[in-house]
Structure formats: structure tokens, C-alpha cells
Amino acid sequence: MSADKSIRQYFHQLTNGCGNNQCSNVYCRSCSTCEYDEKTLNDPNKVAAEAIRLCGKHAQLCIDKNMLKTNIEEIKIRNLTEDYLHELIEQCKKTAGWNLLRDEIDIIFSNRLNLSTSFLKKEFLENISIKKESSSNSTTSKSLFINDPRITLDNDEITLDIDIMKRSIKLLVLYDDEISSTIHTSLDILLNELYCELKSSKQNDLEMDANFFNLFFIIFELSFLSDPIFLFDIARLFYSILTNLSIEAQAKFVRLLSKYATNLTDYISHVQQYITMHTLRWCDHTDIKSDSEELLSSEPGMKEGLDVLRMLFYANLLRGKRDTLDIIETEYDNDEKMEIELVKRRQRRNDDTNNSENSTTNEPQSTGENTTEASATSTTTLRTRRSTNANSDSESPYENKLQLKLDIEPNEYRHGQYSFDTFVNEFANEKIEIRKEYLDFIQKPLNITEFSFIFYPFFLSTINKIALLNIENKARMYFQRRSVLMHNIFSMIPINPYFKLCVRRDHLIEDALISLEYQGIEQPYELKKQLFIEFEGEQGLDEGGLSKEFFQLITEKIFGPEYAMFMTNEETNCLWFNPSAAEDLDREYTLIGILLGLAIYNSIILDIKFPPVIYRKLMGKIGTFEDLETSHPTIYSSLKKLLTFDEEKEGMTIEDAFGLTFQVAITDVWGSQIIFDLKDNGASISVTNINREEFVRLYSDLLLNKSIEKQFHPFFHGFLLVTRDSSLRKLFRPDEIELLVAGSQLLDFNQLASAATYDGGYTKDSPTIQNFWNVLMNFTDEQKRKFLRFTTGSDRAPIGGLVRLKLIISRNGPDADRLPTSHTCFNALLLPDYSSIEKLREKLSIAIDNAEGFGLR
Asked: According to the UniProt record, where is the region Disordered (predicted)?
């Protein structure tokens, strides 16, 4: 019925036109630039064929002015209410037939005015009578829309009674066998007409209609939206309409969702089902193992699904917990200070170089004014980015107009109403060829690329994000190498296309400090090249193993007790900055920050464990009370009790119960107490019921920020020297940064077995190999982690699981009393061909239990 109606409208438009002499629709006979010639328009068969084609592509549809007056005068709104729906269902039950309900659904769900005025709040019921009066007295298209000063695009109001609507739709879908076909047909009519209206000059009037947004909530509530019968036509057309709204209208819809959609997960499920089904359809006609260039992003309808899912993602954020504006402003200020510091350090080194050259060339020396000017310029740029949406929009593919309109920065939210993982479609992510997506993306200007999964980081799995970051990094390295090649061709001075670091094993930290600090400040682009390690006096080409060994050795040294830069929290077994570390360790902290950045850039997992708050801080965040739960659990628990203490219920005051003042002590790595005043004369200010929240805020800030500021600042500076120009902050959440640096704690040893390779005469069917896996699979969790540390240098898995470790098991001679050994640089286990499973279990257990440092390797 819907297709027939639309086709007839297109047929009328092609044969008679719309009657508007100024018509600009090339698919209308009234248009002076109509794309059809008279011969075609006078042939009914050809016109009928074109009408069918235009209906299929949802081409622009004009409204016949001569028909409009008649239609308007005949408008009679037939809306649905909860009571009327109950009455209809009861009548159908009495007559044992459902035609009455089907007829009403057909009338209401196929008509915008009827459906949008259904289930209205009591205070907006007068809109219906206003419409009836205006429709009988007006012959303009304006009369098809209802304006109400209480409903605008700028506010978050809606005329729909959400609760009544939900109860009514819940009742309606109980009879889906009787009405689903009618719903499908009716929605097809409604959505096609809506689409045509949006593509016409009436879009603004439509979006300003007081009841317009009611349609989306009613349709989203229908469980039919996830039905395969609906997915490829109704759902796609529905999502197309949403994504064709103006940015202002999309922003309002997101705000309405965050305010009224208490069942947001149902909406998310609709869209995820849509994306999954379109992925399956793509798989059906595309062999992803072939050389086909057709990407999943080319699947028709995929963009609409992702755009709507992004709206739901933003609504989820708005329903979640955002940092306070004071915290956000402080973080922006810290970013500006760090930006200024980076400029100043670089300028100071340039000034030193210039001074050195000027002492021999007598050229004028640069003054400190340059530093100030550079800093001011940097500050101005950063502030401009914060206040000007256009700059941000043009600079990053990870931001979009809707995000900027809503003023949303995902990393300002600790969490949404639902987990961020809810928005990751694992099945679709498995089919995304991220390398091809990125290459396709960078070959086109940003304003030309219509759709790429790269634009939707919230949708990408962590594995795909890491792959994207690595590809982006490799692309940077490639461009660096290409520019070096061109330089070498036209210059007599060759430049190394890789970042080569030559160190002595017995002076590891000193050599790394000198080279990395210089490159980070003087030539930071060097750090973007692929890292190659060379140990002085040793043969060997770095194919990944030497780099891994370098990181293992240097982290073991610099995190050791000799430097006393960090201490271990006994509760969490995590590292924390020593608040009383020596004053002259700035360079060492900078080195650690650079190492973390280089590890990410070169895809190397480090054997270190920081609490989550450190990774939040590396993303420019500051630590707050909530972070103490994972970094200082006992203190968090005590402060929680302080905040929830009920003086009336407990029969005593906070002063008597806790005896706290605004003077506190923090323990350093040597067990000494360092005294801090949270406020002036803190020892004389008691913590009371009135000021306890202030105490918690100041104490948390001291523990997580101020007490370690001198140590964290150079550490963060070193990290930024490597990652500053990457997409790290736009792509990843803080918890994902932890996975990048230190790997995952989730271990599946079946994955390790499936990806293992064998050497030296072993195969997967060798008796010793069979015994080995039998022993390993029966180890305790603690023993398995020890084994991982023994063979790989870390007890964590890389992103994507142990399948990505590629363990190599080599035969290390015949049966013997020797213990197994390993080369952690290459994830290699050297295993003698033990004569029995008991002997293998004994020797392997001894090896992993006593492998301290690198003594057995």
C-alpha cells in the first residue's frame, strides 16, 4: 500500500507537475530544468518505470499546490490514547477479529499528524484542537505543522507522555502476530513521507513542530524494529531520517534521550542488531579473504546505523557521571601549563645552541622575549581550540559537529549510564579491515570522506584501536623515512630512517637518558620513528627482541630500590610515586615517561603495574576521591565511612568518633611520615560534620596530585614528548591506556596453546609437548602467571589475548637434569626432552619459582 501510494505520487509529479512555476526539483515536470524530455514524460509506460525507480531511491517529492488545499481542509486527526487502545483491543476480543485494530493502526501509524499527537501530556492536549482549527482555515503548508512556544530546539521539553506511551506500546506488541504486517506497511508510508519532507524546503518547519520528536520515541519503543523483516527497509529509513536532521535537531534528540529514555539499552540493542545484520549481509556477498577492495564501511545502511548509535552513545554519556566543571577547568589549565613548558624547554635548548654559535660568529643573541612570545602563542592557540568549535572540527577525524554542538568530550566522563563496551559490536569489529580503512581514509580529504569506521572510536574494539594507532604510527614513520630518503638523495649528509639507540649494558640508564632527553627536546620527531636498539660491542640486528630486552632491563633497574623513585602499595601491589624522592631525579622521571610513550609507539608490553589513576593522569585528568578506591583502598574505605557517618544515629560527633584535623601524614618509601597541612594551621582545625566533604576533597587531592606533583610532572612531560602529536587521547579511554602499556590480566592458556610454534625437532604431537601442555593447564593461576613471566617477562597478556604472544617451544637436547630456560625477548622456551611428565612438572616448577631477575635466562 505504501509503495503504491508513493509511486502514484511520483507518477502524478512526472505527468502533471506540482503547479509551482519556481519548482527546482529535477524529478518534477514543473521544473524548468527537469531531467526528462517531453517524449519520455508523454509515455505512460516510461513514466511508470521512472516512478518506481524514484520511489526506490526516495527521490524528492513535491506537493501539488492544487491538491494541498483540499487535503488540508479534509485533515481530521485520529490520534491514539491509552484508554482508546484498551477499548479497541477489548472490542477485537469480543468480535474475535482484529480488523478494527489493524484499521486504526493503519490510519494512525501511517500519518505524521496522527502518530505525533498520540499519547500527549495533559498540558499539551490543546494542540490537537488548535490543529483542527488552523487546518480548516489555512491553505498553506505551514498549517501542516504545530508550533508551541513551550517547545523549541533549544530546550529539552517534549509533548509526549513517555510513561503512557510505553505502557501503550507494551500492550500493543502483545498482539504482534495480528498487527506486525500492518505496522510494517504503515511505517513504510509514514517514513517515506517524512524522508521526502526532510529533503524538501519544509525541514525547518518539521523540526520546529511541537510534536515532531514524539515520533522517534514511539517508533524506537517498538520491538519490531529489531525484527529481520524490518531491518533492511523500515529500520534503515528510520535511521536515515534521524541522521538527516539538522545538527540542532540531532542535539535536541540526544538531550531528550538522556532525560527521558530510561530504557536506553533497548534502543542500543535495536541499533546493534541492525549493524550485525548488515554485517552478515556484507559477509554473504563479500569474500573477506579475497583481494576484494570492498570494505565493510561500503555496506549500504551501515553509516546510518553508526550515526544513530553515536547519538545513543552521547545520550549515555549525558546520563553518566561527568567530572565537575572546576576539575575540567583545572585540567585545561594544566594542559596549557604543560604546553608552555614544552615550548620553553625547547626554546631554552635553542637559545643555548644559539649562544654557543654566537660566541664564535658574533651574531645577535636571541632574548628571553622569544620564549615568552612562543609561550603566549601556544596558550592562545590552546584557548582558541577550547572555545572555537570550527578549529577542533577541522583538526580531528575523531570529533564531529554533533559532539561539538553538545559540548561533549568523552574522557570528561568517568562512566556513562551503561558500560562503554555496550557500544562495541564485536562481530562487526572482527570484520573491519582497519588497515584498509585507514589507508582509504588518509587518501581522501577529510571533507570528502563520507563514512569510515575511524570516525567512530566509541564503536571500535580496543584491538582495532590499537591496530589503528599502530597503523597511524607506522604511517608517520613511513613519511619520516620517505622524507629522509628525499633528503639523502639531495643532500650529502645521510639521515637514519630509524630511531637508533645505542647503549652500554653497564651504563644503561645514563646512556638512555642522554640520548632520549636530547631527542625528546631537540628532535622530538625522532621518537616517532621505529625504535632500533643496539647494545655496544654486541652483534645482532634488532628485529623486536633487542627492543623488548632493552625495556625489560631498564624498567627493572629504574624501578628498583636503588633509585627509590617508586614504592609498592602492599594492598594493591601497584607502584606509586615516592613523595620524598631525591630532588635531582627529574631526568630519570622524564626517562620513564618517555619509555612508556615509546612502548606504546612500538607495541611493547611493560612489566609494570600502576593503579588506574596514573593512566587517567597521563590522559590529562587529575586524581579525585573516586580514584582512591583502586589506588589507596584502606584510605578510601575510611574516608567513605567519614562521609556517610550519621552523628544522630551513632550518638556521637565526627570529632569524637574520628578525631581528625586538617593536618595529615603520608608515608614514604622508607616508612617515614611526611606532615602536610591541608589548610593553614591545619592541626588546629577539626574535621566536623560541616567541613568533612572539604577534608575528603583536599586529602584526596594531596594524596593523588599535590604530594607527588614534583615527581609526576617530569614523568608526564616525558610521556608527552612521545605521544603529544598522536591520537591517543581521542581514541582511548584511560583504562585502555593501561592495557596498551601493561597488557591484560585476563589469561586464556588455550589461546596460548593454539598459537604456539615448535622448533628443534618438536611438533605439537611430540610426547614431551603433550606432557608440557598437560602440566601447564593444571597449574594454579599463580603458577601460570609465573610461567608467563618466566617466558615472556610479563605476567599479563597483550591486547587480544595470549594468542598474540606466539610462544616458541624449542627442544633443548635430550632428557637431562637441566632446568628449562627461556629467552624472554623472543617469547621462547627451551625445553629438554624430559623422559616423563613427573620430571617435566618438577623441573618446570623449580624454574618458574626461582627465576628472579634474568639469572636463569
From this structure: 344-400
Compute CA distances 180 → 166, 171, 215, 268, 788, whole Å. 17, 13, 18, 21, 55
Q: Report pLDDT digits (tens) over 715-750.
A: 999 999 888 877 888 889 998 999 888 888 888 999
| pLDDT value of residue 492 | 55
**Is 255 inside any structural domain?**
no
The conformational region for residue 58 under phi > 0 = left, psi -120 to 50 = alpha, else beta, is: left
How is residue 540 written as a grid cell? 645482532
Closest by Cα among 774, 762, 748, 754 to 829: 762
What's the DSSP call for residue 816? -
Alpha helices in 491-544 (DSSP H): 508-522
Q: Rounded distance, CA 471 to CA 445, Å?
A: 18
Q: Which amino acid is at 801?
A: G
DSSP letter (8 states) at residue 366:
P
Measured between alpha carbons, how far is 204 from 490 in angstroms, rounded to an integer? 59
Packing angle of the helix pair 82-95, 99-109 (nearest 10 deg)? 150
| Burial of residue 731 (number of CB atoms within 10 Å: 0-12, 13-18, 19+) | buried
**CATH code, domain with 841:** 3.30.2410.10
User: From CA 809, how far away is CA 826, in angstroms rounded?
Assistant: 11
Whose grid coordinates read 618509601?
669
* Contact assessment for residue 26 and residue 34, using Cβ atoms and an 8 Å cutoff: yes
CB within 8 A of 123, min separation 6: which ones? none
Measure CA 835 to chain center: 52
Q: What are the Cα distances from residue 136, in Å, to 210, 257, 268?
A: 19, 35, 41
**SS3 category, 676:** strand
- Judged by average pLDDT, the poorest of 119-133, 614-628, 663-677 is 119-133
Cα dist from 631 to 82, 105, 462, 577, 615, whole Å: 52, 57, 24, 11, 12
pLDDT in tens, 366-403: 334 343 333 333 333 333 333 333 333 335 677 889 99
Bridge partner list, 160: 120
Q: How far is CA 527 from CA 359, 549, 721, in A?
A: 31, 18, 8
Residue 567 parent element (H or E): strand 566-569
Q: How high is the mean pLDDT of the chain?
A: 83
Q: β-strands 828-831, 808-811: how paired?
A: parallel
Question: Apex CA 62: angle with CA 58 and CA 68, to 5°?
Answer: 130
Q: What is the C-alpha separation between 265 and 779, in angstroms, rounded?
A: 40
Q: Which residue has the cell 509503495?
A: 3
Q: How far apart are CA 617 and CA 611, in angstroms?
A: 11
For residue 424, what are the contacts with CB-CB under 8 A and spacing of at least 6?
A: 458, 459, 460, 461
Lowest average pLDDT, out of 106-110, 287-291, 831-835, goes to 287-291
Residue 839 in any domain: the answer is yes
Residue 12 in domain: yes
Q: Give the span between the Cα atoms of 661 and 248, in whole angstroms.
A: 51
Three-state secondary-structure class, residue 574: strand
Query: Look-up: residue for cell 624454574?
Result: 847
Known catalytic membership, residue 34:
no
Is 153 part of a structural domain of the chain?
A: no
What count of other Cβ atoms lies within 10 Å of the Cβ of residue 635?
A: 18
- Full domain range(s) for residue 818: 745-850
Of the residues 18, 23, 28, 825, only one is catalytic, namely: 825
H helix runs in 724-780, sequence order = 728-731, 734-742, 749-755, 767-777
Distance CA 188, CA 180 (A): 12
Residue 821 C-alpha cell reads as 630456560
d(CA 642, CA 640) in angstroms, rounded, equals 5
| Cα–Cα distance list, 456 to 126, 297, 429, 737, 745 (Å) | 42, 12, 12, 18, 27
Q: How far is CA 582 from the centre of its chain?
A: 39
Of the CA atoms within 13 Å of residue 594, those in its CB half-sphere come to 27
Query: Rounded distance, CA 399 to CA 390, Å?
Result: 11
Q: Which amino acid is at 818?
A: R
Query: Which residues have CB under 8 Å from 450's CB, separation 6+?
Result: 303
